[in-house]
Amino acid sequence: MTRLAVLRPSATPVPPADDLPEVLEPYLESLQILDRLHRLMLDLIKDEFERLRHEDLTPVQALLLFNLGNAEVSAGELRSRGMYQGSNVSYNLKKLVQMGYVHHQRSEMDRRSVRVRLTPRGEEVREIIGQMFLRHAAGLQASGVLDDPPLPQVNLQWRRVERFWADQIRYIY
């Protein structure tokens, strides 16, 4: 018996093989949609910054600035907050510091830890992204796309999936 088989949570029953296609196909479609949505969001950010002739940032870096917000956090905290598909948060933070978008300072409590916060230049980028998201939310609301099912209900469902996935990772280790 493998280690994974021993640690598999017994509370997660595997459906019978006959039922699997009914469960598996919509699940796989959801995963593909989520991946495409994330990539489209990054493309939207890229287009917005190209339109504004603000081309020194990658979409991932701009998203990092948006998610940093008004807080002062560590790189690890920032990584756990956001969606940085295929990116190295530490590398991007180093670049953002070099470009003047982020200020960094060693933690007084733990000198190994670095705390980061936005500079005024970083706050400008955060505002650009925030305004873009606000326009998108207004357009989606006006179109009725988010009415059925209501977005809070959809988000609740995704938080449940997120919790399930996180639990699966904990059981592996």
Automatic annotation (TrEMBL):
Alphabetical UniProt keywords: DNA-binding, Transcription, Transcription regulation
Annotated organism of origin: Paracoccus chinensis
The HTH marR-type domain, residue ranges: 27-163
SMART domains reported for this sequence: HTH_MARR
Sample GO molecular function, one term: DNA-binding transcription factor activity
Protein name: DNA-binding transcriptional regulator, MarR family
GO biological process, one term: response to stress
Domain of life: Bacteria
